[in-house]
Every structure is written in C-alpha cells, then in structure tokens.
Amino acid sequence: MCAVPIGPQHSHLADIQDHRLLCTCRSCYLLFTDGGASHGHYRSVPDRYRANAGFALSAAQWDAMGIPVNLAFLFYQSDQGRYVAFYPSPGGATESLLDLTAWNEVVAGDPQLQELLPDVEAVLLRRLDGGFECHLVPIDACYELVGIVRQYWEGFAGGEDVWRRIDEFFAGVQERGRG
Fold first, then answer.
1. How many other C-beta atoms can be found within 10 angstroms of the C-beta atom of residue 56?
2. Could you list the residue range(s) of the whole structural domain that residue 40 is in?
3. What is the DSSP string of 96-120?
C-alpha cells in the first residue's frame, strides 16, 4: 500500500470489494483497524485464533451442506450478505456453490460463531473420525492452508507429505488458539 518493504512476517488487509488480501506494513494495517477508515473498503485481518470446543455439527448437517471433502472454511462475506464456503484444493481455494441453509442453523445456535468479524475471520473445519474440529481463525490462515495443499498435493489422494503438513498446520492453529 505504501511501498515500505515488509518481511516474511507481516500483516494483511482484506479488500472487501475485490475479494483479495493485501500484504501490508504494520502502520498501514493499523490505519484500517477501525472499519470507518476506508468506508469499509479495507479491513485489517485480526491475528486472533480461538478454538471452539463447544462446537456441535452432526454428520447429517455436514452432508446437508453438501461439502464433499473433509476440510473447509466458511466466513460471512458482507458484500454478498451471506456465508460462503471454500475447500482447500490442489487448484486453490474452491468455492462451494451449495445451499448453506444448514450452516445458518449451526451459526444461530453457536454464540462464538456469531462473534466472527465479517470478511476477515473464518470458521476452519476439519472432519475427523470422531466428529469435527472447529477453529475460529483470521482469514489469511485459511489461505495459508490453501497454499500448503496447492504446494504439496500429489496424485489423487494428496500423498503422505501433504497430510503430515496439514496435521502440522492444525497443530499450530491449536497452539495459537490456546494463547
């Protein structure tokens, strides 16, 4: 934004109108922490991570959403006025065009999900044998996961390396959610 050089660890802004993330220096990031600074065009992506230990989602609700994979992230897209769901895939973030009515019911029953900041925070879900792992994360963390899948996926099922890295990513998310 201001052309100040930034390092590998840096902040992000969400460009709400163009649906993209921008890398920023800390000063530019701080300018947009107040939503009125750009009349809502840009929003600072927060750095808070939270586990949602009380999260309840049944296999039937998951199936009703039609999510065909075991990893997904959902967030409220303010310019669309609705939740959107994406799956990390070898081709990038794949948007689900399916009906999310079942998801709206889940959100209505979960106060933590209702506290997510539109456009900049997401629900990161991983389906496991015993249920679902749910984390409330900055949207840039979701795209970090997308990058891992894109970079390391091999063949039809992904290969051992990508799944090891996905497990490491979720371990890091869990650790940050405790802090």
1. 12
2. 11-44
3. P-S--HHHHHHHHT-HHHHTPPTTT
